[in-house]
Write a structure and sequence with these properties.
356 residues; five-stranded parallel beta sheet; alpha/beta; 14 helices; Rossmann fold; disordered N terminus; seven-stranded mixed beta sheet
Length: 356
């Protein structure tokens, strides 16, 4: 037998080595974090909120919409992952049940807790015994004093999402171009406006650009009261006015409310609908339906898939911009081409309403 001819024992040894290597490779592929056979990631999310509180109820509904988006096929296609999501709701009937509800939300060791009110946020933080992440979605009002008295070690892994159309760069472009130093705001003191936190957001957006905020508050959400408030606001001579959620009027009658500003040469910036621009506002930024929920879902993806940016879908534009050229001409404002190029809608004729 030639010396270089492998013996039966040697041949069996090689086969055994190859078999062992194959088994080892198969075992590696089945281990978490290795190859295509990896167990799909699984996340459990708990919602902690109040059942009857007027300010909290819409936030619970919004959070359900956020989680529906996260579980949609569209998100799965974007991430390229077959990941699993389970959710549970823990809603206290009143403030007295808040502590017990917070403990229930944490009992199942969720991947993340979503708090839909500042009351539940405080209770959840105090009840935490580990580093469970806590997320506060956009649209949930959080008082400045909410975190007072909470030990520093319990303030880790808190995520706030507070972006809003008021800080949109398209609006900022106009403010910068006008050289505005004072931003006016009509604040209607209703439960809805408290929940929406528009005054706080507008003041924050103005402060970021070195602007002062001057606000006129009214107690009733009626057309006559809004008109009086707008006249008082015009007397303060702000450089521009953010329009809040003026539920006292429709787009057809909004022009009457804007007239005191137009008479004083003050441009208005709408933040609620494109109809504000057609009624005479110089500029209006409209947040598309579901935009807030999509931004919140995107933020949640960033938390859940921390360190894996490749699975994040591209963030969509937040809304649409409309510019009223008749108002610009009336106020003697020459809008730069950069603003006009950004606008989805250019309005040439203001829709007039009967004089109030």
């Amino acid at each position: 037998m030639p010396a270089d001819t492998p013996s039966l024992l040697q041949r069996l040894g090689r086969k055994a080595s190859l078999l062992s290597a194959g088994m080892a490779l198969s075992a590696c592929l089945l281990l978490p974090g290795a190859g295509a056979a990896m167990e799909p990631p699984s996340f459990a999310i708990a919602i902690a909120g109040l059942k009857e509180n007027l300010e909290d109820a819409p936030c619970v509904a919004d959070t359900r919409a956020i989680l529906s988006l996260l579980a949609s096929k569209n998100i799965a296609e974007h991430t390229g992952l077959a990941w699993r999501l389970s959710t549970s709701e823990h809603l206290a009937a009143d403030f007295a049940e808040a502590d017990q509800t917070a403990r229930q939300a944490l009992a199942g060791k969720p991947s993340l807790v979503i708090c839909t009110s500042d009351i539940m946020l405080k209770r959840v933080l105090m009840a935490r015994t580990d580093a469970t992440p806590v997320f506060v979605p956009e649209g949930v009002p959080v008082a400045e004093t909410t975190l007072d008295g909470i030990p520093g070690e319990k303030l880790k892994n808190i995520y706030f999402h507070s972006s809003s159309p008021d800080s949109n760069p398209k609006l900022g472009t106009l403010i910068d171009y006008l050289g505005a130093k004072r931003i006016g705001l009509l604040h209607v003191d209703t439960v809805d406006d408290i929940r929406d936190l528009l005054p706080t957001r507008a003041a924050y957006a103005a402060a970021k650009r070195g602007c002062e905020t001057v606000a006129v508050g009214i107690a009733q959400d009626s057309y006559d009261e809004c008109l009086k408030g707008m006249r008082r606001l015009a007397a303060l001579k702000p450089d521009a006015v953010y329009l809040g959620h003026l539920r006292c009027t429709s787009a057809e009658t909004l022009n009457g409310l804007l007239q005191p500003l137009l008479d004083a040469g003050i441009p208005a910036v709408g933040t609620e609908s494109l109809g504000e621009a057609s009624a005479g506002a110089l500029m209006a930024f409209y947040q598309r339906a579901g935009t807030m929920e999509r931004r919140n879902a995107y933020h949640l993806l960033r938390i859940l898939f921390a360190g894996r940016k490749e699975v994040l879908p591209p963030l969509e534009a937040a809304g649409e911009l409309a510019v009223n050229m008749e108002t610009a001409s009336t106020l003697g404002i020459r809008l730069p081409m950069s603003v006009l190029a950004d606008a989805e809608y250019i309005i040439w004729k203001t829709r007039k309403s009967p004089a109030p």
